[in-house]
Design goal:
Blueprint: E1 2-6, E2 9-14, E3 18-20, E4 23-25, E5 36-45, E6 49-58, E7 61-69, E8 84-86, E9 91-94, H1 106-114
Antiparallel strand pairs: 1-2, 1-9, 3-4, 5-6, 6-7, 7-8
Length: 120
């Protein structure tokens, strides 16, 4: 799971980000769009195309132009079309997948089967 957090608030949360040039690009459906406000900033990357920016607003505090997306990227960057990346102090953290509980692992299940259903 990968999360983007700012001001103690989860901005995006996804199992499937695309990493380009060290930035995690989150699928559009994993982003909390109610926290993003359109910013008129645009930049151009020679191989990705034009990036459109958003301010992140949490509890009335704005982080200006801290999110961006390539709405119509070049064919070389089509895998991030519509995805959103974050900067400006947004913490993007990948958390390890939770390991299965010992009681539901294969050895745990076998132990319960042969001990009358009781976990040890």
């Amino acid at each position: 799971m990968t999360q983007a957090n700012w001001n103690d608030t989860v901005i995006a949360d996804s199992e499937a980000t695309s990493v380009v040039e060290g930035n995690h690009y989150f699928p559009a459906d994993s982003v909390r769009w109610e926290l993003l406000k359109v910013n008129d900033r645009q930049t151009v990357c020679h191989w990705k195309g034009t990036a459109n920016y958003y301010d992140i607003v949490v509890d009335g505090t704005a982080n200006r132009a801290a999110a961006w997306q390539y709405r119509n990227p070049s064919p070389a960057a089509n895998n991030i079309k519509g995805h959103v990346a974050f900067g400006g102090g947004v913490k993007v953290k990948r958390t390890p997948t939770e390991s299965r509980d010992a009681a539901t692992s294969a050895p745990g299940l076998l132990r319960r089967m042969f001990s009358g259903g009781q976990s040890r």
